[in-house]
Amino acid sequence: MSWWLEVYVPTFEHVNDKRRAGTAYADQPPSIFLTVNLKELSAAQRMDLLNEVDNARATLDAAYLRTVNGLVEALGGDAKAAVDLITVERKTSSARVGKDIAFAHSLAARHPLSFTALAGGRLNWLRADIIDRACSGLTEKNARAVDAAIHPRACDLSPGQLWSLLRTTILTIDPEGEAKRRAIAKKGRRVSVKPEPDGMATQLWHDSAENVLAVQDRIDTIARELASETDPRSMNELRADIMRDLLLGKYTSKTVAHVYVAGNASTILGLDDLPGTLRGYGAITAQQLREIAFSLQATWTGVLVDDGGYPKKMAEKKYRPSAALKEFVQLRDNTCTFPACYQVAHKTDYDHVRPWNRRGRTSSANGKCECRRHHRAKHSGRWRVRTGADGDTVWTSSVTRRSYSKKREPLVPVMAE
User: Fold this and answer.
1) Dist CA 368 CA 353 (whole Å)
2) Same domain, 329 and 288
């Protein structure tokens, strides 16, 4: 079965013809015609169609950004004038238009490969924005170098994977500048309030990643301790109430917060400056790794890794994994192994890939980190899970028969020579 996905965008000549004929252009917007009966398509065919529509949306986004860039050029580079024109024409906010103009200019000047991938439907707006924001502190030369280094791989990564790749790549290309950028960024730490509808508000706290993750871990740990069948509050409600009560002094707890970092022993001892990894965030500098190691009451566990930075195997002869084995699997997987999930590993379940009652071993090779939702999804029969030849985790849908893999990330980044 085939379908037509037709995207109609009026040409310049067509628009002028309509205006000359006295027809308001506002009554002739671009249209997307989907000439197919969805009821006739299977789930797999609808997935194909979804991909086509999403790719077309990315192509239109790139066309919009190129047009925005072109308008600024036509106004002699006057971005403020362009903002005023677009806001009155498109009935939108100047803040939104200003961000679009800055994004369009940055993609064209600093990330040409990402811009091309967006235009080709291989990269969406979200991931292009992640690339732009991650490189915001780099010079144009280094930003282009990062852009070249991550493509074409970036087109096949989820947002979480892309962020991890960007952190490692930036540290590789500009290790000296990272310390300076981090010092500047730390001066921008702040707390602010954003009003919300229905009598609500959002408090925004911007601080170093290790501080934010430590506070979040403490709140999560207390929430899990307080959660019960008789408490009607959801976990999110519990987290909000706990943070409020802690800050207002209405609640005290001796719960200890944890952050998880990994790095080479030689780096921690100051013998080299290889980057480390902050779980739930990504690659960090050697300086930041040592700051966390020596400014907190840190407990370190030694793990042997191979030349690629991946942890080696270990196994046990019992159903429930020991604390050491569970920690090892968490270090290796870093997050839930479902391809689109990035729940941090220490908040996931250890699951046997081959079930224990079918002679599946309790081992690092047969164990995977799965958050509770995707642990249940696997056992529901909707997904089959296996380990690929390269160690990646492969999830296959029993509905569409399609397979998706989640690539392993090294425990510690390995710098190119």
Assistant:
1) 7
2) no
Q: Residues 159, 68: one domain?
A: yes
pTM score = 0.70
The whole-angstrom distance between residue 161's C-alpha and the CA centroid of its chain comes to 6
Give percent of the chain above pLDDT 70.
84
Structural domain span for residue 274: 261-295
Residue 285 · residue 330 · CB < 8 Å:
no
Q: Looking at beta carbons, which pairs linking 45-48 to residues 24 or more positions away fall under 8 Å?
A: 45/1, 47/400, 47/402
Do the beta carbons of residue 56 and residue 34 sit within 8 Å?
A: no
* pLDDT tens, residue by residue, 260-313: 888 887 787 777 788 888 888 888 888 888 888 776 566 666 666 666 776 765
How many domains are there within the chain? 4
CB 373 within 8 A of CB 364: no
Q: Indicate if 275 and 383 belong to the same structural domain.
A: no
372/40 Cα distance (integer angstroms): 35
Q: Which amino acid is at 104?
A: A
